[in-house]
Specification:
By secondary structure, the protein is α+β, with helices and mostly antiparallel strands. It binds 2-acetamido-2-deoxy-beta-D-glucopyranose (3 copies).
Length: 776
């Protein structure tokens, strides 16, 4: 079971994986909305808190919806920010390392930057106090913070007289991986407890007791990297509450080879106080198993994502059954990628209730333990599940303790929901650093909206939709938000469901970003519908926040279809302000034979497919592209125009069955020889060569210019007279706008180009007497 298959993947499989994930229609890596930091500002959607001390170095954040505060642990400081406006009226506790701590730190050969007090642990301790622990220049410290218990009292003070050692609660090194969770007055931590980072432990430390994993026991923890933790109840009996830890560790012994890393989920009973004769002050309930996130392949050799990057526990009304989301990377040096897998508690519990893994010696393979399992079941809690015979883990029989000590690993791994990732990125230059998930009620059900932070200060907003019939997951990338001006890694994302705000931490600061901005998708019903954002619906006028029925029952008119994005069905026949949406106006484009020209047309949605049609009479044929006619993201590019290219072109976008005409063009191809003849004559006259058919003011005075112009009209046919006018105004003579000119004083009425030309040749500028009353 534990063979590190991911390292054995043949390249072919990787190719298959890459091709599969980029198959058209299946997944789309283009966000519907891509907003720069400035665009977020301009839309009034973000605010950023910058530390008055320069870099902030956010390691931990805590949301307090009741007091409407966001607590932020940074370097040498803890901040209390307003949830409403993070950049308004913040409070700060300055808590640096002491001079002695810093001197000792520097004497140990550490950099000055490492000798700060980095706040790594921050929890609501009770109604009035927070518990905070910092690295204290490689001398960890903990203290209480008086935060008051109402918005009004505005308290925010360090209880400086009660600062105590933070050993066993906070790591020494600011970069050391560590996780902690707080429940019923107890702090549970996964960390390295010593200066040299030799002693990894999962522990609980309070005034009364100290319980931890065994020291130097590679079976329990093997060079772990702690990622996350959570207390999750099993049932109504508090004594059955479990503390779950998420970490990666080296695969041990024969299976692993040297570098294989696995993601683990480990757990202990919250009330575990260790044994009486053996396992004194050691967990009597520590068990763990593998958390799998892999892509099934047709040949049965799955591709594994083994390195847990971040984990998010999505709490629901039923406290016992949150949904767990893991963000995973690959350990392979051959290919880099990320995957998000979702897990159900029932699958997690089933694995812990299943067989224990067993091997005769480190040289043997793991297999399911077949012998007799003692009672109470190793890994269970001193609670009612064991018939109420044991009021404490100290009462457990030695046999149970001995067994759990020898068998901390479960045989069955935990597989994700649908047995595949809900999100997969196999070719990306972004590194994913963080994940948070919001559960959103939409018209057609509930959706998990994933917010994924990158190393480049971006947050991706994604929904994933499982299709039962095809057993596949569709990924809809709604938005890509550049949250900070500088490309720093995102280190924290918290969601306030109540406020519909995200709070995003980095070295640079803390950004507050609204989770949605529906109007940016466009005001038309189809734009709103096709966006498939569960936060948004079309309300008859515009795209706006969707509220489930019951909150605003008066709103009759809501159009939303997240699952299918079927705008055709949702928006058919809908008129905007009493009119049908305007059809795209026809544009004239003149090109010269053998030269290149571009019909520009970029779709509103990057997820739409662009189709080009050529209309000849009543028929409409799709344009055949080849090495001369190329479809580009900017439009249709003719590398070498031919006379036959003349015609009416239609640029349409198709998205989920909804077809929209974005642009129409009438392309005229000017014959090369005739044009050259005209230009040539123009040139003989001593005037400069120009391809412009437009009568510039000065030029019209010369007879040849008139001739030139006349010939040009002949060339394209007098019937197209108005087209040339229109064309000239818009394209080649855009700076010669008669309306504008008339409003300017006479000396400004020269077109810039003409003036520059005249000056260059040392000519006097002639008054443009007839310039404005040209024959047309
Ligand atoms: C920006 O949003 C805030 C609320 O977050 C509001 O008070 C303010 O009026 C908005 N400003 C603009 C220009 O829309
Ligand atoms: C919260 O805990 C602190 C620190 O132990 C203590 O001083 C304070 O009285 C407690 N507050 C309440 C309301 O229990
Ligand atoms: C061909 O097009 C380019 C730019 O599109 C232009 O600079 C050039 O003058 C054109 N040549 C002729 C002969 O029209």
């Amino acid at each position: 079971m534990e063979a590190p298959r991911s390292r054995l993947i043949p390249r072919l499989l990787l190719v298959w994986l890459v091709v599969k994930s980029s198959a058209p229609g299946a997944r789309c890596n283009h966000a519907r909305l891509r907003l720069s930091h400035k665009e977020l500002w301009d839309a009034n959607r973000t605010r950023v808190f910058h530390s008055p001390r320069g870099s902030l170095g956010v390691h931990t954040m805590l949301l307090d919806e009741y007091q409407e505060r966001l607590f932020v642990g940074g370097r040498d400081a803890i901040y209390s920010l307003s949830l409403e406006h993070v950049d308004h009226r913040h409070k700060e506790i300055h808590w640096p390392s002491t001079a002695t701590q810093e001197d000792e730190c520097l004497m140990k050969g550490r950099e000055k930057s490492e000798c700060g007090n980095y706040i790594k642990v921050l929890h609501q301790y009770n109604r009035t106090h927070l518990l905070a622990c910092g690295t204290g220049a490689f001398d960890p410290v903990c203290a209480f913070i008086r935060a008051g218990h109402s918005k009004e009292d505005g308290l925010f003070e360090l209880e400086a007289h009660r600062v105590e050692s933070g050993r066993g609660r906070c790591p020494f090194d600011p970069n050391s991986p560590c996780t902690s969770t707080f429940s019923r007055g107890q702090l549970y931590v996964g960390l390295y407890t010593d200066y040299w980072e030799n002693d990894a432990a999962v522990c609980r430390l309070d005034d009364r007791s100290h319980t931890r994993t065994e020291r130097d026991d590679g079976q329990q923890l093997n060079e772990p990297k702690f990622v996350g933790s959570a207390v999750i109840p099993d049932n109504d009996d508090q004594d059955d509450d479990k503390v779950y830890f998420f970490f990666t560790e080296k695969a041990s012994g024969a299976d692993g080879g040297n570098n294989a890393v696995y993601t683990r989920i480990g757990r202990v009973c919250a009330n575990d106080v260790g044994g009486r004769r053996m396992l004194v002050n050691k967990w009597s309930s520590f068990v763990k198993t593998r958390l799998m996130c892999s892509v099934p392949a047709p040949n049965g050799i799955d591709t594994h994502f083994d390195e847990l990057v971040d984990v998010y526990v999505l709490r629901k009304k039923d406290e016992r059954n949150p949904e767990i989301f893991g963000l995973f990377g690959t350990t392979s040096s051959v290919f880099k990628g990320y995957a998000v897998c979702a897990y159900r508690m029932e699958d997690i519990r089933a694995a812990f209730n299943g067989p224990y893994a067993h091997r005769e010696s480190p040289e043997h393979q793991w297999s399911a333990f077949q012998g007799r399992v003692p009672f109470p079941r190793p890994g269970s809690c001193a609670s009612r599940v064991n018939g109420g015979h044991y009021s404490s883990s100290r009462d457990f029989p030695d046999e149970t303790l001995r067994f759990v000590r020898a068998h901390p690993l479960m045989q069955e791994p935990i597989r994700p929901v649908h047995r595949r990732p809900v999100l997969l990125r196999t070719h990306t230059d972004q590194r994913f650093t963080h994940i948070a998930v919001d559960r959103v009620e939409a018209q057609d059900g509930h959706y998990n909206v994933l917010f994924i932070g990158t190393d480049g200060a971006k947050v991706l907003k994604v929904i994933t939709i499982y299709n039962k019939d095809s057993d596949s997951v569709e990924e809809v990338l709604l938005e890509e938000l550049q949250v900070f001006k500088v490309p720093v890694p995102i280190t924290e994302i918290l969601i306030s469901a109540k406020r519909q705000q995200l709070y995003i931490g980095s070295e640079f600061g803390v950004a507050q970003v609204r989770a949605h901005q529906c109007d940016l998708y466009g005001s038309a019903c189809a734009d709103c519908c096709l966006a498939r954002d569960p936060y948004c619906a079309w309300d008859g006028v515009t795209c706006s926040r969707y509220y489930p029925a019951g909150i605003y029952t008066k709103r009759r008119f809501r159009r939303q279809d997240v699952r299918h994005g079927n705008a055709l069905q949702q928006c058919d026949g809908i008129q905007i302000n009493g009119e049908r949406p305007a059809e795209a106006q026809e544009k004239w484009v003149f090109g010269v034979e053998r030269n290149s020209t571009l019909l520009d047309c970029s779709p509103r949605s990057p997820q739409a497919k662009v189709l080009w049609f050529l209309k000849r009479g009543p028929d409409k044929d799709e344009v055949k592209t080849n090495d001369r006619v190329v479809q580009t993201p900017q439009g249709l590019l003719f590398l070498q125009l031919q006379r036959e290219d003349t015609g009416a072109y239609l640029c349409q976008t198709a998205e989920r069955g909804f077809v929209h005409t974005v642009a129409r063009f009438s392309l005229e191809v000017l014959e090369e020889e005739r044009l050259r003849g005209v230009i040539h004559r123009d040139n003989e006259d001593g005037r400069e060569l120009s391809q412009s058919p437009c009568p510039l003011p000065g030029r019209l005075q010369g007879s040849t210019s008139r001739l030139w112009y006349k010939e040009f009209l002949q060339l394209i046919g007098y019937s197209n007279f108005h087209k040339v006018e229109e064309y000239c105004e818009r394209v080649w003579c855009s700076d010669w706008n008669r309306k504008k000119l008339k409003s300017l004083p006479p000396k400004w009425r020269y077109p810039q180009t003409q003036e520059r030309r005249g000056r260059a040749r040392g000519e006097q500028l002639r008054a443009p007497r007839h310039a404005l009353d040209t024959p047309w």
